[in-house]
UniProtKB/TrEMBL annotation, chain A:
Entry annotated with the keyword Hydrolase: no
Pfam family, one: Succ_DH_flav_C
Protein species of origin: Lutibacter aestuarii
Keyword entries, A-Z: Flavoprotein, Oxidoreductase
Entry-linked PANTHER family: SUCCINATE DEHYDROGENASE 2 FLAVOPROTEIN SUBUNIT (PTHR11632), SUCCINATE DEHYDROGENASE FLAVOPROTEIN SUBUNIT (PTHR11632:SF53)
Keyword check for Transferase: no
Transmembrane segments: none
Segments forming domain FAD-dependent oxidoreductase 2 FAD-binding: 36-470
Signal peptide: none
Cofactor: FAD
Domain of life: Bacteria
Record protein name field: Fumarate reductase/succinate dehydrogenase flavoprotein subunit
InterPro entries in the record: FAD-dep_OxRdtase_2_FAD-bd, FAD/NAD-bd_sf, Fum_R/Succ_DH_flav-like_C_sf, Fum_Rdtase/Succ_DH_flav-like_C, SdhA/FrdA/AprA, Succ_DH/Fum_Rdt_flav_su, Succ_DH/fumarate_Rdtase_cat_sf
Domain Fumarate reductase/succinate dehydrogenase flavoprotein-like C-terminal: 532-666
TrEMBL record, chain B:
Family: Belongs to the succinate dehydrogenase/fumarate reductase iron-sulfur protein family.
Domain of life: Bacteria
Domain 4Fe-4S ferredoxin-type span(s) in chain numbering: 151-181
Name of the molecule in the record: Succinate dehydrogenase/fumarate reductase iron-sulfur subunit
PROSITE patterns assigned to the protein according to its UniProt record, in alphabetical order: 2FE2S_FER_1 (PS00197), 4FE4S_FER_2 (PS51379)
SUPFAM superfamilies hit by this protein: 2Fe-2S ferredoxin-like, alpha-helical ferredoxin
Length: 667, 247
């Protein structure tokens, strides 16, 4: 078994990044003009990287499958972005953010990367404010913060419930400035279908113009993958409909190791599913847990009555409610990390206390917060002996100011007024911590091929804390990659333009064309969605919130069967040379069908429970996850050898020099 | 519920389009509008027909990709939401629903219900940004206090999702609400003031070149905007434009 070289620089953890930046090779401005970089994906990571690399003087080609970079799914992030600014004076620091992230990730992330993330977090906020991102402010005109799960400070910056949107529009505007200058060539409605390697280095991609169907060759001196996570392997997730793993999976098949696929985050607060036709799940921001209290009925007969529609939640007396997070985790209460909150919800629902007609939901209740805020407001306004109605009205106004858009979204979907009756929520797949393995430079195991943002595995270990995805995407794109990629490209200043007229491009293009033709000509019996839903079912039931060896072994077999059936019987209508959404989906689902198997294989091999990966065989006496640091304190990086089942495991041993490995407790 | 759908089908930008009738049955009131379209498309695939192409992505009302004109209204009959957030409970059993793409000269149809909105991209590229490079050494985020009122107004303008409903709803196919939202976001912030005059001039120039119509203050855009972008932004842009013209 090879040991992976993570290329973490020497020195004390606080100085690594500074020393690294002082010593790397730089490319002079005149030479940057002769170097091309491809960036695939234009969310927070890709968008910020594309803009920054173009500002530096490189020629950037950026690719998005949507009709504009502004539509990448980073836009849907609601709650906020973390930064260790300590504007609240509540004891925050880079070290604390680093510590919280490593602990929150259940000690399965690389210390040096996480520390660097914490170090640059403050600069992200400075940069975004300079770009005109309208973060929330208090009456003194300074930036406001709120709390997220798994931490004891307020370090989350936000722009109403649309933080991801505003940050993305920030890097989109920076991109637009560079597109106008001609430094970014933007390819909208284009999808990368493969990476091209020349002499072992990533030198370009094959992309399909989704409007004309034309297959295009694009060359560059380096390729950056920033295409997000693989949550849609579950079919139902909070990801966008088009979110896919094709770019990440294709680079994996070309030699990039894929790390920790089983570390997937199931987010505790999503709107429960309502029927078989459901196409996606909608997240309710974690910020709601600042004020909402989570509960289920304490008595099983009440739960049954609710499930049958005979009882309303507002009719259940306070003493008959089980605020199970507050009961089990008094120190963090409703603000425990996501994995803990999700599992606790599942535990109650499995025990029969769920509240939807399906029994798969718990309540998120704002009644107490409305009363608390209402009384506070009444005092501020000098109202003496306010009536309960007055207090409720004032309190609802405060809640509306904080979460209005989320409440509106909920009401539109569920058709219930969450100001008057508690929200129903249930966990759903949301984020993937696993992804393409990268070293400290964010380079994959293929030279010249980089992977940033959610698509890589590096910073969140086995569980991501809230408001850290936006931080990582922007850290990678604005402040990390622009340094590390320069160090690599310094050797390429004499290479000259990379030709697309080479056997490597020919071969990659032919393979793509053959596959697309197969889909169109197969004329099978089942639609692409039929297979995607089948895969999603297996993933959710057997590789979901709780996993065991038997279920995982079955899942591997079942996924293989679905895949074989797919390649025999899939039906894709329409033709190649046109806008053809079914054809796009076919390629993506084909890749999910392979990734799903590796996912299950990884979950089967990891004989411990940690973070988002919960193995029923590995629990403590009180039902908490039981980690095995002696045997599994490593990153599992898989090498593709022709079949997902035959992937070879490489281990990157994780060393914790600055943080003591201990059992994660939120009690 | 059972519904009759009349849907615009058009093979390509140069082809002639037409309304085509489809029937859907057993539609649940809890379905979203686009899930109803998914059900229809699955049935078309089963019959070896080419499914209806429509833009969509996040399906939670924020990406701005979905863009249907439903019964003559952008994003359908409900208010304050996008098509993907519209639910079938808004309709009744037996209804006939007309589904068309955005209609505007500056938004040519690509296929069926999908239109080309890259005109919006070019307007943003003309000046929808603050010229600041990434360095890690910009001043501290709290160095310039911004009044909560202006920060909130700026955020309200920035909430625009760039879907194009304003253009589709306007009898003149004007893009003033969209452009003014971006101009306002920056004009309200101290960081944006330095380039304010150039920004508004360049963005308006590009808007005119793209073939959008003029604004005659009918206010249809504000009514149909899924994000409640206010007409006040247009007034603010007009002031900014006037200011920029006399300096």
């Amino acid at each position: 078994m090879t040991t992976l070289n993570s290329r973490v620089p020497e020195g004390p953890i606080k100085d690594k990044w500074t020393i690294y930046k002082d010593k790397i090779n730089l490319v002079n401005p005149a030479n940057k003009r002769n170097i091309d970089i491809i960036v695939v994906g234009t969310g927070l990571a890709g968008g910020s990287a594309a803009a920054t690399l173009a500002e530096l003087g490189y020629n950037v080609k950026a690719f998005a499958y949507q009709d504009s970079p502004r539509r990448a799914h980073s836009i849907a992030a609601q709650g906020g972005i973390n930064a260790a600014k300590n504007y609240m004076g509540d004891g925050d620091s880079n070290y604390r953010l680093f510590y919280d992230t490593v602990k929150g990730g259940d000690y399965r992330s690389r210390e040096a990367n996480v520390h660097r993330l914490a170090e640059v977090s403050g600069a992200i906020i400075d940069q975004c404010v300079a770009q005109g991102v309208p973060f929330a402010r208090d009456y003194g005109g300074l930036l406001d913060n709120r709390s997220f799960g798994g931490v004891l400070v307020s370090r989350t910056f936000y722009a109403k419930g649309q933080t991801g949107q505003q940050l993305l529009l920030g890097c989109y505007s920076a991109m637009n400035r560079q597109i106008a200058r001609g430094k970014i060539e933007m390819f909208n409605r284009h999808e990368m279908l493969d990476v091209v390697k020349v002499d072992g280095k990533a030198r370009g991609i094959i992309a399909r113009d989704l409007v004309t169907g034309e297959i295009e060759r694009h060359s560059a001196h380096a390729v950056v993958i920033a295409t997000g996570g693989y949550g849609n392997v579950y079919f139902l997730s909070t990801n966008a409909m088009g979110s896919n793993a094709t770019a990440a999976w294709k680079v994996h098949k070309k030699g990039a190791f894929f790390a920790n696929p089983c570390f997937t985050q199931i987010h505790p607060t999503c709107i429960p599913r309502s029927g078989d036709y459901q196409s996606k799940l909608t997240l309710m921001s974690e910020s709601l847990r600042n004020d909402g209290r989570i509960w289920v009925p304490a008595k099983i007969e009440d739960a049954k009555a609710i499930q049958q529609g005979k009882l309303k939640p507002t009719e259940i007396a306070e003493e008959d409610r089980d605020y199970y997070l507050e009961r089990r985790y008094p120190a963090f209460g409703n603000l425990v990390p996501r994995d803990v909150a999700s599992r606790a919800a599942k535990e109650r629902c499995d025990a029969g206390f769920g509240v939807n007609a399906t029994g798969e939901a718990v309540y998120l209740d704002f009644a107490a917060a409305i009363q608390r805020y209402g009384s506070e407001k009444a005092k501020i306004q000098g109202l003496h002996n306010p009536s309960k109605e007055e207090i409720t009205k004032l309190g609802e106004a405060v809640i509306e100011a904080k979460y209005g858009n989320l409440f509106q979204m909920y009401e539109k979907i569920v058709d219930e007024n969450p100001y008057k009756t508690p929200m129903m929520i249930y966990p759903a797949t949301h984020y993937t911590m696993g992804g393409v393995w990268v070293d400290y430079n964010l380079m994959t195991t293929v030279p010249g091929l980089y992977c940033i943002g959610e698509a890589n595995f590096s910073d969140h270990g086995a569980n991501r804390l809230g408001a850290s995805a936006l931080m990582q995407g922007l850290a990678d794109g604005y402040f990390v990659l622009p340094y590390t990629i320069g160090d690599y490209l310094a050797d390429d200043i004499r290479t000259g333009k990379i030709s697309t007229d080479s056997p490597e491009f020919d071969a990659a293009e032919k393979e793509i064309k053959d596959k697309l033709e197969f889909f169109i000509n197969n004329k099978g019996t089942h639609s692409v969605d039929y297979y995607h839903k089948k895969l999603g079912n297996v993933m959710w039931n057997k590789v979901g919130m709780a996993r065991n060896a038997k279920g995982l072994t079955e899942a591997i077999e079942e996924i293989r069967e679905i895949r074989e059936d797919f390649w025999k019987n899939v039906k894709v209508p329409g033709s190649l040379n046109e806008l053809n959404p079914e054809l796009e989906k076919a390629g993506r689902v084909a890749d999910f069908l392979e990734l799903g198997e590796l996912f299950a294989k990884d979950a089967l091999h990891r004989e411990e429970s940690c973070g988002g990966h919960f193995r029923e065989e590995h629990v403590t006496e009180d039902g908490e996850a039981k980690r095995d640091d002696a045997n599994f304190a490593y990153v599992a990086a898989w090498e593709y050898t022709g079949k997902p089942s035959e992937a070879i495991l490489h281990k990157e041993q994780l060393e914790f020099k600055d943080i003591e490995l201990k059992t994660r407790s939120y009690k | 519920m059972n519904l009759t759908l009349k849907i615009w089908r058009q093979k390509g930008p140069q082809e002639k389009g037409q309304m085509v009738e489809y029937k859907v049955t057993d539609i649940s009131e809890h379905m979203s509008f686009l899930e109803m379209m998914d059900v229809l498309n699955e049935s078309l695939v089963a019959k070896n027909e080419v499914p209806i192409a429509f833009d969509h992505d996040c399906r939670e009302g924020i990406c701005g990709m979905c863009s249907l004109h439903i019964n003559g209204e952008a994003h359908g009959p409900d208010r304050g939401i996008t098509t993907c957030q519209l639910h079938m409970r808004t309709f009744k059993d037996g209804d006939t629903i007309y589904i068309e793409p955005w209609r505007a000269k500056a938004f040519p149809v690509i296929k069926d219900l999908i239109v080309d909105r890259t005109a919006f991209e070019r307007i943003q590229q003309a000046g929808g940004y603050i010229s600041v490079n990434t360095s890690g050494n910009t001043q501290d985020a709290n160095a310039i206090p911004i009044s909560k009122r202006n920060a909130d107004l700026s955020m309200d303008a920035a909430a625009c999702i760039g879907c194009g409903a304003c253009v589709a709803s306007c009898k003149n196919s004007s893009a003033m609400l969209f452009v003014s939202a971006k101009v306002s976001q920056f004009a309200l912030l101290p960081q944006g003031k330095i380039e304010a005059a150039d920004r508004v001039r360049n963005m308006v120039k590009q808007m005119d070149e793209e073939g959008f119509g003029n604004c005659t203050n009918t206010g249809a855009c504000e009514v149909e905007c899924p994000k409640g972008i206010s007409l006040e932004n247009i007034a603010r842009m007009n002031r900014e434009y006037l200011k920029a013209s006399i300096i």
